[in-house]
Structure formats: structure tokens, C-alpha cells
Amino acid sequence: MSRLLPLSDAAWPARLAPGLFVLIWATGFVVARLVAPHAEPLTFLSVRFGLTALVLTGLAVSARATWPRGWRGWRDAMVAGILIHGIYLDAVFWAVHRGLPAGIAALVASLQPLLTAAVAGPLLGERVSLQRWLGIAVGLVGAGLVLAPKLGAAGGIPPEALAVCFCGTVAITFGTLWQKRKAVSVDLRTNAAAQFVGALLFTLPLALLAETGQFDLSTPLLLGLAWAVLGLSVGGILILLGLIRRGAVAGVAALFYLVPPVSAAMAFGLFGETLAPVQLLGMVVAVLGVAIASRG
Questions:
Q1: In this protein, which residues make up the domain named EamA (predicted)?
Q2: pLDDT number for residue 124
Q3: Residue among 256, 240, 246, 179 at smallest CA distance from 1
């Protein structure tokens, strides 16, 4: 099985891609906290998906990139977008909006590597080695250690919000597998643009049916939206799609274990949330788990 990013033949941008992806992806929790008082979740995501599709379309047109050919190409990209962006982000934002603590949401999302490893073999024919399983297990322990103090102080957890968040994690798991199987040779820019079109077509009707359209155009909301579009949805997603193409999907999924620790560190720096010694230990364990899984 190939490594996630073989250092012997990878260019410097490719070597830096996993770490950069984790840093960008971890800011998603910061954005969610920043914009929550200013916009309803599905309304915010609809605007985010629409703007992202426009930005990526502009990049693709300026580069004269190749667009998906025929209905099948568009279908494959839009299905991936519905799963990776639409259902996953809708579920997480809705669950947090309904009272699920962000730490619990991060912990639920960190189950993705286990789900990916469990189904990668039957669906993709990928053999998940014992070393990779070990790395996935170690990463899960690390993520749990980081979030342990938050679990203890969370109080009541809305069961429906927890269930919806888990469904979102299942969705991004299958979306990652779908992308690995169906988008072997597509242009990442046009594929990502088509993905966000699919996410918008899925999310906008839900927002119109279930929400009032709150979107107050405050400075925090505009800053959060700008980063969500340019940093998370354009930068982060293009890096993720590139990693999926280059590496074994179970190894790529193991990177998600680093997101809760990095998010906790960001919360400490930006919002003054303290880190207990057990959380610092969890960060080290999570990094170790990813290192093991990436070489499995």
C-alpha cells in the first residue's frame, strides 16, 4: 500500500499539504462559533456554498480547466458534494445550533477514520494494514483525551442533535470514498465547483423551508464568511481532494484526528479556553497516531 505522501518523490507543496489541510480544517469550529449569533446555519451555508461555487468557477474558467463531461461526470461530482459538504456541514452546523457542544461535535466527527477503514476494503478494495489500524486506534485515543474535559462538563446532550451529527460523519465518510472511486482523473478545480453546486442545490431548499433567512451582515459574519469561502471551502477542499487522489483513503482520513487538538489550541489562543495536561497529552498521542497510519 502506498504511503499518504511519499517524501522521496513529493514536491515541497505536496509535503506541506497534510499539515496545511489540518490547520485550515480546524478553523471551521472557529468560524462556526464566530457566525452563530449572526446567521441561521443552513442560510449561512447556502450563501457559503453559492459564493464558493462562483469563486471556483472563475478560477476554472480563467485556467481553461476541463469541466466534467456529460451527465455522469456532473452527477459524480455533485453526489460527492452533497455528501462531503451538503449533508456533513448541514448536520454539524444544525446540531451545534440545536445545543450540541462543539467539542462533542468534533469527537463525533473524529470517528470518520474508523468508519473509513471499516468500509474502504469492501468498497474500494483497499487493504487496511494492521499498522494503519493501529494508527487509527491511537489517533482515536488522542482525540478522546483532548476532548475528555469537555465531555465531563458538557451536561445534557440533545439526542437528536447527536444523531444528526453522526449522520453527517457517515455522509462525509462515504463522500470521501465516492470521490476516491469516481474522480481519479478529473480536474480538481472544476470538480470542486460542481461539488459545491450539488451542495447548494441540496441545502438551499432546506434553508428556505426550515429557516427565516437570518443573515445580519455584521463584521464578524462577513469575516467568517470570507474565510469560510476562500480558506475552508476553496483552499481546504482543494487540498483535501488532492490528498484523496494521491494517498490511500484510510490514511487521508486519519488526518481528521488532528483537527480536534488543533481546534482546541486555536480556542485557547483566540478565546482563552484553557488546555488541561490531559489535552496536551492527547495532542501528542493524536500526532503519533497519524504518523503511524500514514506509513501503514
A1: 21-147, 164-294
A2: 63
A3: 246
In angstroms, the CA 54 to CA 121 distance is: 36
Query: For residue 295, what pLDDT is reported?
Result: 67
With b meaning 16 or more CB within 10 Å and e meaning fewer, what string describes 120-150?
A: beeebebebbeebbebbbbbbebbbbbbbbb
Q: What is the pLDDT of residue 206?
A: 96
Helix axes 102-109, 12-35, angle to 10 degrees: 140
The DSSP letter of residue 155 is: -
Amino acid found at 81: G
Instruction: Convert the pLDDT of each residue in 59-91 to its tens digit.
Output: 999 989 999 888 898 999 999 999 999 999 999
CA pair distance 114, 95, nearest whole angstrom: 21
Rounded to an integer, what distance in angstroms lies between the CA atom of residue 89 and that of residue 295? 29
By the 8 A CB rule, do 128 and 176 touch?
no
Cα–Cα distance for residue pair 228/47, rounded to 1 Å: 10
Q: Is the pLDDT of residue 13 over 90?
A: no
- Give start and end residues of each alpha helix (H) in the chain: 12-35, 41-62, 70-81, 88-97, 102-109, 112-124, 130-153, 159-182, 188-210, 219-227, 237-246, 249-254, 259-271, 277-294
Q: What is the pTM of this model?
A: 0.79
Widest distance between CA atoms in the chain:
54
pLDDT band at 134 (very low <50, low <70, confident <90, very high): confident
For 245-267, the pLDDT digits (tens) are 776 666 677 777 777 778 777 77
pLDDT at site 2: 39
Q: Angle at which helices 102-109 and 88-97 pack, to 10 degrees?
A: 150
